[in-house]
């Protein structure tokens, strides 16, 4: 009788394997390098960002099980660049306790519908929503209860404004319904928020949760433009956000790094989305904190006790640098050169092989020493003006 060989008993060459090879994997690999931890990355192409910092590459689509198996054979623990994984396929692999976070804990977060169901089950604040399939079955009176504008979101793969469609009128809605063959969408009430906040934290195997400061994010065309940390929030709001985060991460017995995006306005604090991974809103932590979000994830998954999280400065500013049109007069090399000359700049270039409009190419962080939030906002706007003169937002 053939017995299935347990891959956990095979001697592994690398401490960590990363499924995915984009900019988040790049910064995870950089954090691992600082800790002297060897990493193997599974990614589609040797041109992907994380390749330059990885100790070994498995050139395979991160969604392909054969590549996943090869990665597991070589690595003690497997971590994820993002939540776009095929849990049903990974569950078939003989790989008990190798994934961080566990497949069971990440499963409710891999698509928007399962997230919404979790939030509803936990009775946490969130915009009202309905699946497109359920919406189609409503009668005329029930449909009238949904006021325009509405937000339509795809089940999976939504990021940087992708998979989000604003519906302003009944005609827009009818047009969408006619053109869309798939039911893998949800309809969400429109939220007139005043601020967008994000909270990123980590939870280790002992159940200890560590938080980065709550930040305020500023969007253009549904894409994060810049982030200031810490946000100006009162004690009650901060406590509520922390309690929401703690409730979710403990409910799932989730180990690793997680981010929650919030809307805040007249209706109070509402959960927008949950990201089971490192997150754009906490990139500032590389320069501004005693331990970055990437360091937290690397430490936790490697069995190292993660450091406590403290900010080194009064605040920080992080600006995203997105791809521009080919006709833009300054070359990438010239933009990088000029940005690097701005006092206090910390530029993170992702090393992507091609610049396309709206693609995240890099980010730049500045430490803010001003003692109050208003002064930090003023300083941020000064810096933002300088940066955008060199590298404008394609969404302006």
Question: What does the model show?
Answer:
The protein is an alpha+beta fold and 396 residues long. It has three domains: 7-100, Rossmann fold; 128-189, ATP-grasp fold, A domain (Dna Ligase, domain 1, 2-Layer Sandwich), CATH 3.30.1490; 193-390, D-amino Acid Aminotransferase, Chain A, domain 1 (2-Layer Sandwich). Helices cover 30% and strands 27% of the residues. The chain is built from 13 helices and 18 strands. The protein has helices at 23-34, 65-74, 87-90, 103-106, 112-121, 132-136, 140-144, 170-179, 235-251, 285-288, 293-302, 332-340, 373-390; strands at 14-19, 39-43, 56-59, 75-80, 99-100, 129-131, 150-154, 164-167, 185-189, 193-203, 209-211, 215-220, 223-229, 256-265, 268-275, 315-322, 346-349, 360-368. The strands form three sheets. Strands 10, 11, 12, 13, 14, 15, 16, 17 and 18 form a nine-stranded antiparallel beta sheet that branches. Strands 3-2-1-4-5 form a five-stranded parallel beta sheet, with helices on both faces. A four-stranded antiparallel beta sheet has the order 6-9-7-8. Helix 1 (23-34) packs across helix 11. It starts with 13 loop residues before the first strand and ends in a 6-residue tail after the last helix.
Defining key terms:
single chain; 396 residues; alpha+beta; Rossmann fold; Dna Ligase, domain 1; D-amino Acid Aminotransferase, Chain A, domain 1; 3 domains; nine-stranded antiparallel β-sheet; five-stranded parallel β-sheet; 18 strands; globular
């Amino acid at each position: 009788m053939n017995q299935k060989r347990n891959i956990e008993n095979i001697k592994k060459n690398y401490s960590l394997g990363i499924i995915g090879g984009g900019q988040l994997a790049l910064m995870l690999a950089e954090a691992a390098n600082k800790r002297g931890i060897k990493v193997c990355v599974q990614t589609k192409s040797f041109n992907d960002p994380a390749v330059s910092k990885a100790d070994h590459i498995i050139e395979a689509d991160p969604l392909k099980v054969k590549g996943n198996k090869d990665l597991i054979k070589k690595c003690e623990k497997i971590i994820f660049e993002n939540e776009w994984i095929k849990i049903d396929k990974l569950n078939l692999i003989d790989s008990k306790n190798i994934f961080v976070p566990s497949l069971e804990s990440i499963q409710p977060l891999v698509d928007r519908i399962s997230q919404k169901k979790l939030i509803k089950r936990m009775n946490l604040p969130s915009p009202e929503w309905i699946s497109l399939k359920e919406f189609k079955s409503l009668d005329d009176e029930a449909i009238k209860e949904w006021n325009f504008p509405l937000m339509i979101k795809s089940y999976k793969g939504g990021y940087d404004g992708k998979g989000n469609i604003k519906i302003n009128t009944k005609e827009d809605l009818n047009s969408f319904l006619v053109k869309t063959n798939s039911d893998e969408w949800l309809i969400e009430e429109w939220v007139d928020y005043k601020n967008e906040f994000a909270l990123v934290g980590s939870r280790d195997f002992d159940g200890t949760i560590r938080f980065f400061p709550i930040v305020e994010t500023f969007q253009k065309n549904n894409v994060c433009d810049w982030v200031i940390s810490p946000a100006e929030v009162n004690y009650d709001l901060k406590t509520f956000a922390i309690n929401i985060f703690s409730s979710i991460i403990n409910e799932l017995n989730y180990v690793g790094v997680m981010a929650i995006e919030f809307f805040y306005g007249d209706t109070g604090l509402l959960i927008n989305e949950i990201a089971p991974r490192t997150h754009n809103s906490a990139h500032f932590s590389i320069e501004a904190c005693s331990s970055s979000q990437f360091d937290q994830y690397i430490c936790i998954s490697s069995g190292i006790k993660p450091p406590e999280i403290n900010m080194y400065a009064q605040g920080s500013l992080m600006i995203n640098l997105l791809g521009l049109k080919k006709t833009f007069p300054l070359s990438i090399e010239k933009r990088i050169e000029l940005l690097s000359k701005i006092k206090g700049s910390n530029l993170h270039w992702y090393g992507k092989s091609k610049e396309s409009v709206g693609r995240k190419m890099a980010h730049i962080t500045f430490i803010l020493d001003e003692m109050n939030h208003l002064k930090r906002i003023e300083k941020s706007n000064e810096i933002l003006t300088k940066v955008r003169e060199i590298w404008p937002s394609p969404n302006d």
